[in-house]
Design goal:
The protein is of the alpha/beta class. It has helices at 2-24, 57-78, 89-95, 102-114, 177-182, 190-204, and strands at residues 40-42, 46-47, 84-86, 118-128, 131-132, 137-139, 142-151, 157-166. It has a single domain (2-208), classed as Rossmann fold. The radius of gyration is 18 Å and the shape is globular.
Amino acid sequence: MEKLAKLFLSCCAFFLMASCSANLGSDKGQAEAPVLLSCIAVLPAGTSVDQNETIDYQDARSLEKGADFISAIMERELVGHAKVKLLTHSKVGSLAPEITGGMSGMVATIGKKMDCDAVLLTTVRRFKQREGTEYAVEDPASANFQMALIQSRTGAVLWTADFRETQESLLDNILTYNKAQSRGFKWVTVEQLVEQGVKDRLATCPYLK
């Protein structure tokens, strides 16, 4: 069931990136005014594995690890939220056979089954661990993920957020001073990089206030 769910979420990643890219390029598909939401279904994070033929086995495993890590962080941050229903891989897997019609069909079906107005999708594109220690690295931590909140009834993209960072040293970019200071002027792990990214992005979502 979990393998089915992960395959389904990877397929959703393609529709998520295509849908958001198209919608963000124009006003069509975007909510024109703030929408009142009583319930948001939050899916476990998926990966971009099925959309990139150049990804090797090791990178695919890293993306899966990143998706599991992000899912855990989101669960920890959103558990108990009055508007949120957190879906497990098991629940997503049980709904997968009923879903047709690409992204809009997937969002509509999950919204209906979970009685939610919107669905929050997350796609992990990069999750690369640092090579070295917190004081010296050969290659810094790097991560890339996207979040999108889709209205169940209309398929409109209500909110999106991207996180894309490869940690830089102060010598490479003096503008990173404040961020470097908050990290103790150390090279962080990819988990530390991503955890703060997830928290910051969720904090900016007006529908999760």
